[in-house]
Amino acid sequence: MPAYKAPLRDKRFLMNEVFDFPAHYAGLANGKDADKDTVDAILDACAQFCEQTLSPLNLSGDEEGCHLKDGKVTTPKGFKEAYDEFVAGGWQGLSHPTEYGGQGLPMSLGLVKSEMMGTANWSFTMYPGLSLGAMNTILQHASTELKNIYMPPLTEGRWMGTMCLTEPQCGTDLGQVKTKAEPNADGSYSVTGTKIFISSGDHDLTENIVHIVLARLPDAPPGTRGISLFIIPKMKVNADGSLDGSNHVVCSSLEHKMGIKASATAVINFEQSTGYLIATPNKGLEAMFTFMNTARLGTAVQGVAHAELSFQGALAYAKERRSMRALSGKKEPEKVADAIIHHADVRRMLLTQKAVAEGGRAMLYFAAQYADHMVNGILENDEAKYKLWDDKLGFFTPILKGFLTEMGLESANIGMQVFGGHGYIKEHGMEQIARDARIATLYEGTTGIQALDLLGRKVLLTTRGKCVREFTGQIANFAVNHLRDARLRPYATTLAKYAAEWNVLTMRIMLAARKDRDVVSAASHHFLMYSGYVMMAYFWALQASIASEKIAHGGIESKEFYKAKLATARFYFDHLLPRAKGHASSMMKPSKSLTKLPVDHFAFN
């Protein structure tokens, strides 16, 4: 398993030079304490925790997995001690309100923390990661009384949270939820039902687990309009926060999974468990989207995390493994053969991983600033401000989740390819990265669901193309501002063409959908991937512009870093961005090639 080394130079490049996080934080209500020295100290401390504690547990945790015996779940050796260290460091409450024991820092710092932790050990990171979504949902939708009871122990990390959506008969189609909630005389509810695929559903890391559960009230209308949201603790909780015995929340089994084996994915039975209503009755799905959007951003982080870790492993191997001679002549004549990093095809693979990891990180950090503004809208009780930034982030979310997880999976597979046959062997850890990465394109909504959300809901239905026009306007401004710069003109002209094409494609799909509704579903995957490639191109051009400026006018101490940025940007535009053209062509093909084949013609057995 590659030993994780936090890419702090790249993080600081994005935060300080590309996106100016110091100025961004200075303009936030909760950013006054996030000065550069404090942020640097947080990055250094988190890197140390990830490199020294979490990374060494990644391979052993996969080999051991989680165990369920006599109704109790045990996490792999070392996880409990690592979690105690995590809690002692105050990491769970980094970006949550001080009134509940948090540090009150901007949400984006929490995302940067999660990216480092997730790269070092994704299975471990899922445990506290699920709590973040539960905490955000409770903060935004629960009563003051429930917040006062549940937020302090969740913020401290003494308790953890989950989200319980999926049931045996339904996955994405939550209108089929059957879990029932019967009202009790004291205002609580008695909840009965089964939830599956519950990440961190049960474990031995904390004294209590707080489940956020979708269920139906007795008089609920059918479908998604009749779903409510409840807090259901594993252990009953008194008004003073003390625990009061079992709440009849039972882990009946653990899923046997392809990857992330050290993360307990549970089947949870609620057996007349006491629950407490969050938000308005029958409006639980809207409230749950607070959780789901948080989780989708977290899943987008996974795409970057696996690309980064696989790249680190593949790069080290490519520098050491020797095979044949480079076609352009011997590179290491004193050796029996050249290191494989000198072969162009190996470089293609390594540069793809590097471009995805660093380009994806830029996309995430930019979106994280949107999330900061959105949270500030809540803190300032400014509904209009919250809605503005929530809508902006809503356009990014399906692209980040869908595109980055697909590219992260590709990067993980590339890492195995660099190793050749050794990549298929467990001891090197590269196959584990690929197995762990595979789930990212599936949970919190598959890539297909993200694509429909992007094209069908965000682009066509909600904004009628406005969200695309706004972002491509940003791209066009960059192009105009750099067309006269000979160093950046190739990026600017290319981006200007793609920005115009993105709008044209959007309009053509909108017009075609008036006559054929299936056009939206048929085009959605290609539209999402096209959007991802063009969006990443913009952020690579942005990084190239800063690197070019630094080389021309900056100090010499980081010149090689900036040169590497320019080379990777050039590779992205030359070798990865052209893929967008294939998606553009495919999305405009008639839907009948997908929809006209009768179901019984798919196979003749």
Can you walk through the features of this model?
With 605 residues, the chain is α+β, with helices and mostly antiparallel strands. The protein has 3 domains: 56-89 and 121-282, Butyryl-CoA Dehydrogenase, subunit A, domain 2, CATH 2.40.110.20; 287-443, Butyryl-CoA Dehydrogenase, subunit A, domain 3 (Up-down Bundle); 449-595. It has 19 helices and 11 strands. It has helices at residues 8-18, 21-26, 36-54, 57-64, 79-88, 107-120, 122-141, 144-156, 284-320, 344-379, 383-419, 430-438, 447-462, 466-482, 489-513, 518-553, 559-576, 579-587, 592-595, and strands at 67-69, 72-74, 159-164, 180-183, 189-199, 208-215, 228-233, 235-237, 243-246, 249-254, 265-278. The two termini are 44 Å apart. 51% of the residues are buried. The mean pLDDT is 94.
Question: What is this structure, in a nutshell?
Answer:
This protein has 605 residues and is of the alpha+beta class.
